[in-house]
Input
Amino acid sequence: MNSFQVETPTPSTLEISPVASTPTALNPTSQPSLKISKDVIRTSLRASTGDAIFSAIFSLTTGGILLSNFLVELDASPVVFGMLSSIPMIANLIQPLGAYFSESTTSRFQYSLLTHGISRPLWLILVIGILATSWGGVNSHQLVILTLLIVLFTHLLGGLGSAAWLSWVAMIVPRRLRGRYFGLRNSAASLTNLVYLPLAGLAVSHWYGGTLQGYGVVLLVGIVFGILGIGCQYFQVDVNPRCQNTDVAKLAQTSEIQPDVAKKDSCEIPESICLPQLPIPQNQLVASIWKNTNFLMFLVYFTLWMLAVNLSAPFFNFYMLDTLDLDVSWVTIYSSLQVGANLLMLIWWGKLADKIGNRPVLIFVGILVAVTPLLWLGIGVNRLDLWLWLPLLHIFTGGTGAAIDLCSNNMQLGIAPVKNQSIYFAIAAAAAGVSGALGTTVGGFIVQFSESGGLLGLFILSSLFRLAALIPLMFIQEPGG
Output
């Protein structure tokens, strides 16, 4: 959940105008003119949406409630579940390294194929492990360890490629369409979650060979969809990071620099212009980051927000299941309502952000999200709370969460310069990963070692931290805001 933006054109986005014409040769001393057609933009955006749908199925299968239920069936300890929550956030620490590697390549697509194309098929090892367990070759403890190792390595590989992928998408989606497009893209993923999750749950629980085998079958299906998602990326217009990092990219804010439509390599710039930018001078890069006060302020906001949110976010379900002792079927229904509200509000928030900017939406909705933990105080198991208050609370959480996720992502795209863009994304992800993991850990200690009322006290503390985290947002300038 997060977002950010400025008035002057910055190298944070390469404005892609839908002009269909023949690309002209680039004269380094003249104004560049690289063209992309409307059809190529449409094809790329549709392919990215297809990637979101297939990848959502893969992510639901390899994480969340399905993977948690699988580990419960294996009698995994609470420590294992703590590690399962921490690994994805800690793995973000590797993103700056992945971003540095990606800037030395000549194709965003090939780099994504190298990272995500390896990480997703790795889950086939777990399918084999489940089969081996059914045949008696592997015991439950060994399968738990194997699961954690696969989660670790796949998230590390994903961390190596995440920033480069985000930079790629940032170059493809025109800035003026980002709110609407990402709202539509995220809505498609949310709708997939809404439909696929209950079907997958039914398949696992009713599989004739047992729930472990059922999860193995569902996992295999999820892997196939994950690979199809990578296949969709082939139809996105490619971007050469070497060209993106040249001085030509700086002119993109004031001129019609547009990727070429004739070839997968979208940046038709002579080799002599692209290559001198590599390798990236580390001292200059660090200096440029420290001088970018707007990005640093965004980083402060993003880090504090992730810490504040994760203080309490992982414990709302625990509060319902443990403190309120609700049946898991109730919690599943509430979660579905939250996903549905997220789906319905994404496109609306995207259109609003395109009109008034991401920062105003973040400030207003951020205040609502900040007070949300306080709304959990006083909730009981009476009929009014079960049938009215808890459903409304989850709908409210889903609707406001959609705005935070969408606008945070769009603001980050707007603030990060085009040159070495993926490195900026990686730094933000690494900082958010560490702060999020810290928030979850601190929240767990507060709940475990506090006397009665520890959860409710944690909710109050998280609400105060969320309000404080919004302060740096006031000092961020949003490009075009």
Remarks:
- The chain has 20 helices and no strands.
- The chain has one domain: 38-475.
